[in-house]
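User: Predict structure, ligand iron/sulfur cluster.
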Amino acid sequence: MKDPSAPAVTKALLQWYKKHARKLPWRQDPAPYHVWLSEIMLQQTRIETVKAYYARFLDALPDIAHLADAPEDTLLKLWEGLGYYSRVRNMKKAAQIVMRDYDGTLPHTVEELRALPGIGPYTAGAIAAIAFSGRASFVDGNVLRVMARLRADTRDISSEAVKRAVQHELEEDFLPERDRDCGTFFQALMELGETVCVPAGAPLCTRCPVASFCAAYRLGDTLSYPVKRAKKPRRIEKRTVLLLSDRTHVALRKRPRKGLLAGLYEFPSVPGHLTQRELRRLLREEEADALRILALPDAKHLFTHVEWHMKGYLVYVEHLPEKALLSGNARMSPLFFADRTDLDTVYAIPSAFRTYTEAARHATG
Ligand code: SF4
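Assistant: Predicted complex:
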């Protein structure tokens, strides 16, 4: 059954957004490449963090042609710290297809956009609606939260079937009349979710443009929505990370081409949490004479399904170990020494190692 308040909700949101939308760099000039890049960067990453990355990326690769030609290490360095690196690799693959098949211009329709690597239904809808003013929809966690509260909807929003159903209901009942307002409407829902109907803590209902239509607000029960199934706990992996340094360089290796953090650079590490004594023994076995060993702070990094709990040591050595465990094996490429400047400018080291990258800068500075 059609939601009778839907047209009024849509109108209120469009008016509110006109006045309250934050000025964000990708909104100033919503060219297709800009919308694409920002939407990909904003998956899993906060707006404040994305701003600097977005500016740096566009500076280095101002259009699709530059992206299609960019060397992989340049791309990974520009993405360093954003995580989920397959996103930028897929962008490059898609850019190459756009250069080959579309003369360097992104296609307009959701179907054509979805056929490109790394562009799913959400990003395709966002590009079609925002950059090309098309009649398209795109739904993220903010939209799902706002809609669940607005309708006191008890369906589990972590279910893919529920997400699809909500998107369908939005398309049926809530889309603005004019195609060119669709992008604005979904951006308004998201903006409301980010700034007013917030995910953490109580929503700011007294500032909400759709409070008079909101069922959860009427029931005085906003925090019971949205309903979400509890996530499976992450697997915990303990690792000991080693900064092997000759005082001016630090040892790095490239991760395998497939799997977690594929193709990025890392400090060598071994499974488990080693004591200094165990580490000394390991280094002797690896024929790397440690001149001095210093304990570094512990660090933790959360991935989607796994948590790394890391212990770290700075180990001063005369030369790099040559045996398999530390220096490389069938999966790992060999260790090499990198100097401080190259840590900053050449090698993309994931933010999982941030604590140790900082320590490496001090150790080699
Ligand atoms: Fe969210 Fe409150 Fe607005 Fe309802 S009234 S949509 S709960 S901010």
